[in-house]
Amino acid sequence: MEESPVAIAAAPTRTLPFLRKLTRHARIPVNAFEEAGTQADGDLVRLTMGPFRPYLVTHPDHVQHVLARNQPNYVREGMFWDPLAPLLGEGILSDGETWSESRRILQPLFTAKYVNSLAERMAEIITELIDETVVPGRPFDVAKGISAIVHPTIVRLFFGAKISVADINRLVPAYDVAVTAKAIRLLMPFVPELVPLPGDQAFKKAIKAIDEVVYPRIRQARAEAQEGDDVVSRLCKARQDETGAEGDRRIRDDLVAMHGASTETSATALTWAWPVLQAYPEIAAKLYAEVDRVVGDDPVSTSHLPDLVYLRMFVSELLRLYPPGWILPRKALETDVVGGVTIEAGSTVMLSPYLTHRMSAFWDRPLEFDPERWNPANEAKRHRYAYWPFGAGPHVCLGQHLFMMEAPLLIAGILRKYRPMVHHDGPVSPRLASSLRPAAGLSMTLVPVGRQ
Q1: Are 317 and 297 in contact (CB under 8 A)?
Q2: Taking Cα atoms as reference points, which of 300, 268, 307, 315 lies closest to residue 430?
Q3: How many Å apart are CA 398 and CA 111, to the nearest integer?
Q4: pLDDT at 382 over 90
Q5: What is the SS3 assignment for 74-138?
Q6: What letter would DSSP give residue 333?
């Protein structure tokens, strides 16, 4: 579909009573957002959430305007961002001059060329970790099991020996708590931080644990002044003129952002792969057959990737229906007009790839999981901003190349030896969190191939 210009004349704004939807969907609040997106049908609408009244942006034209055409006007402040500020800091996940500097420092570590240079080592680490962590026939928590592979893979690749196994084992659960504990503030952004809410104390403890791991590593790297390709060494060298506590904090913010860009997308998205395979047995059969044919009994390697065509299609469709960064609020610095609707300065706009990816105007059978829609032979021409699982514009996620390399290696690495059996009846619902995660406690068993 061709991209149409954003209207410049203001029009009356539709409003939707969002608190009623939240009440109806109290157990699965994400469904309230999905209902609102369906009701908006591409229009830019305002959600009434008590004293908080954000604008909901779903149409690809409007997404393009906010994230690309007039991106400097829409900053990462307010809802979502302010509660997570102690975790995210002022680096790559902020705005302005600090963002530009951090992106300049981190971007070389996420280019396709650099990621490709690490790919074979990544494949080896994934194979090792699958062998170390999987206990065939024993049920395990899906999110924790996938994290036990994703997080150490990235740490070994990028952090080298600067962070020990003990530190990894402390860092991983702390980061997991940090990105989920303040979920309730997504629904209640009008409540001041001084007013305690459930999850606040767990969040503070998680930040404390992260800082107790990261800051000693920074001070050690600075004291030793070692050259190296690991992230800690590179960041210390890049910020060697920024000394003292402020310099350490800037390195800390970059490290935490790198950890998130490298692991959060992968671990969250790959958690959804297994319930999807169980829900669509025909798709699972095609994927199993391809992995058996291409990989067989060999350890998975980068040489297999070009022939894992259906797996790549599967991953693209996984990101369409289950984009990890499902909601991305922005605050308007100045008054703007988007789609004929006036956005007042200081207002919050809520963008969501989760909703845009489900729009029937841009996707045939939008709620059906169908990897074939990504087949180059029949892939339909669509609006460039109808699909943006990694964000868009200048703030597009640095970790996208890493994920598109890691995801097929991990899925194929598991499926070459095992078949998943998820212990859940019916559809798996997302829970409210800053990233799109399945309901807590989802478990599965990996059954060795040929002994089902």
Answers
A1: no
A2: 268
A3: 8
A4: no
A5: EECCCCCCCCCHHHHCCCCCCCHHHHHHHHHHHHHHCCHHHHHHHHHHHHHHHHHHHHHHCCCCC
A6: S
Give 267-294 pLDDT, tens digit per residue.
889 999 999 999 999 999 999 999 999 9
Give the pTM. Answer: 0.90
C-alpha distances in Å from residue 411, one per residue of 82, 182, 273: 35, 30, 8
Who contacts 335 (Cβ-Cβ below 8 Å, separation ≥6)? Answer: 342, 343, 344, 345
How far from chain centre, in Å, is Cα 291? 26
Q: Give the rounded percent of residues in the chain with a pLDDT score beyond 90.
A: 51
Alpha helices in 164-280 (DSSP H): 165-180, 184-187, 200-224, 231-238, 244-259, 265-271, 273-279
Q: Give the tens place of pLDDT for each residue, 32-49.
A: 999 999 999 999 999 998
* b/e per residue 29-62 (b: at least 16 CB within 10 A): bbbbbbbbbeebebbbbbbebeebebbbbbbbbb
Identify whether the C-beta of residue 200 lies closer than 8 Å to the C-beta of residue 181. yes
Q: Are 256 and 87 in contact (CB under 8 A)?
A: yes
Give backbone dihedrals phi and psi of 121, rounded to 5 degrees, phi first. -65, -40
In order of 7, 143, 355, 429, the CA distances from 322 in angstroms are 30, 14, 10, 11
Residues 6+ apart with CB under 8 A from 200: 181, 182
Task: Answer yes or no: are the C-beta atoms of 264 and 143 closer than 8 Å.
Answer: no
